[in-house]
Amino acid sequence: MFRGSAAALVTPFNNDGNVDYYSLKKLIKHQKVNKADAIVVLGTTGEAPVITRYEREKIIDFVSSGIAGSMPVIIGTGTNNTSEVIEMNKIAERYNAAGVLIVNPYYNKGTQKSLVDHYKNISEHTSLPILLYNVPSRTGMNLLPETVYQIHSSCKNVAGIKEASGDISQIVKLFSIMPDDFLIFSGNDDQVLPIMALGGNGVISVFSNLLPDVMGEICKAMLDKNFEKAVDLNKKYLRLMNILFAETNPIPIKYALSCLGLCSNILRLPLSPASEKTMQLIDDELEVLGVSYAES
Predict the structure, then answer these.
(1) How far apart are CA 79 and CA 135, in angstroms?
(2) Which fold has domain 4-237?
(3) Which of 162, 237, 254, 255 is catalytic?
(4) What is the pLDDT of residue 295?
(5) Where are the domains of the chain?
C-alpha cells in the first residue's frame, strides 16, 4: 500500500460551515509538493462523523482528482454500523482508492469475537485492501494482538493496521505474532521511532498535515536505518507533535494550519476551536522552530 508517512488529512470548512474546497486544494498541494508517501481522507482528523454521505463522495472525488495518481489515497470508511461501512466501501471502490481505513466500532462495544465477525463481514463485501484502526481512547475498545491475528487469518484483504493504542508492550506482541508482510503503521506521531524500529512501515500522521516533509524525513531515516538522523529530527519536533494533542484532535492542528494560511480555524460541532492557551503554545513552538506563517 505504502511505506513512510501519510497525513490523516483535515477537512477544511468555510465560515458558513460548508466544505472549503479551495483550502482542500491547498492542503493537497502541500502534501504533493512536500512528497508525502500517501494521503488518508475522512479519518478522525478529517472529522468524518460529521461529514454527510453527499459531502463524503464529493470529497473523495475531489481528492482523488487532485492527487491524480501521484500517491496512494486511502479512505476512512469506519463506523459502528457494519452495513454502513460496507456501503462506504462501495464509494471508495468507485474512486479506485488504494485502500480503506476502518476504525473499531465505537459505542456498541462488542467483544473480541464480535470484532472478528465485524471485519470478516466487511472483508467479504469489498476487494479493497483494508487497514484496521485500533484507537481505544476513541472507541472504548482495544483490538488485541490475538484478535488482529484471527482477523488477518480469516480475511485475505486485511493488509495491515494503524496502531494507536499507545501501548508499546502490546505493539511488541503484535509484531511477534504477525507475518512479515502484515503492514503496521504508527497511529501516534510520538511513537513513530519505536514502532518503526520494531519493523513498522511508517505512520498515519496528524503532524504531517503541517510538516509532511519533516515526518517524511523521519520515516525515510528509519527505513534507511539512519537512526541518528531520525532521533535528532524527532527530538527537534517532538514538543510540537505533542502540543498538537493538547486538546482533542483535530482542534489544535486546525489552528496550526490556519497559522500557515492553509485553511481556516473552523470545526464542526461538537468540536470547538482551540483555547487561548493551546493557541499560544502552538504560536510559541512554531516561532521556536522557525515555521513560517503564510501571507494572507
Answers:
(1) 13
(2) TIM Barrel (3.20.20)
(3) 162
(4) 45
(5) 4-237
Read off the pLDDT of residues 14-29 as tens digits, 9 standing for 90 and up. 999 999 999 999 999 9
Which of 238, 239, 226 has the alpha carbon at shortest distance from 192? 238
**Residue type at 82 in one-letter notation:** T
3-state SS assignment for residue 286: helix
In angstroms, the CA 220 to CA 216 distance is 6
162 is catalytic: yes
φ, ψ dihedrals at 216, nearest 5°: -60, -40
Question: Which residues neighbour 170 within 8 Å (Cβ) at sequence distance 6 or greater?
Answer: 142, 144, 145
- Between CA 195 and CA 167 the distance in angstroms is 11
**pLDDT digit string, tens, across residues 195-231:** 999 999 999 999 999 999 999 999 999 999 999 999 9
Active site residue 133: yes
Question: Active-site residue among 133, 220, 237, 255?
Answer: 133
